[in-house]
Amino acid sequence: MNSCRWMKRVEACFDGAPADPAVERHTAACPVCAAHLEALRRMRAGVAAVAVRESVTDAQFPAFMRGIREGIERPERHHTGFWAVLSLTAAALIVAVATFAVFSGGTAPVRATEVESMSTDLQGAKVDTYRSEEGVTTVWITMSKDDVE
Ligand SMILES: [Zn+2]
């Protein structure tokens, strides 16, 4: 990948640092930084699409639970399969959030990894978040096994 010593400053501007005319002039003249900025924009758009898909709305929930149930009911598996599937889901969420944190790194705060609110109308479901010092936010959806079946 091509590199340019201005790339860090370009990233800082992309992350919401105060507009810097010198960086804007450089980006207009430097194909490496122009391409880098375009890649950052595409990345942010892609992450936004993933973030929407990762949240399980009530409309999506039947399919989500069907996937879990199929995991449980596979003959060679016993009931620990349920928790294995939930762990995989949690791992996928962690990976998505962590990836975003890495790509939008720099000196500006990474606001997108902060969960501002969450709620569910599902009976018996509980949603929790935990924000680590590294800035990785983990979201848990907890349901008792009785509510799944
Ligand atoms: Zn450059």
Layout of SSEs?
Elements: H1 7-14, H2 21-29, H3 31-54, H4 61-73, H5 80-103, E1 126-131, E2 137-142, H6 145-148
Antiparallel strand pairs: 1-2
Account of the protein in words:
It is built from six helices and two strands. The termini are far apart. It is mainly alpha-helical and 149 residues long. Strands 1-2 form a two-stranded antiparallel ribbon. Helix 1 (7-14) packs parallel to helix 3 and helix 2 (21-29) packs across helix 3 (31-54). The radius of gyration is 20 Å and the shape is elongated. The model has no long low-confidence stretch (mean pLDDT 70). Strand 1 (126-131) and strand 2 form a beta hairpin. The longest helix is centred in the first third of the chain and has 24 residues, at 31-54. The chain has two domains: 1-54, no CATH class; 56-149, no CATH class. Helices cover 55% and strands 8% of the residues. Bound molecules: zinc ion. Zinc ion is lined by residues 4, 6, 26, 30, 32-33.
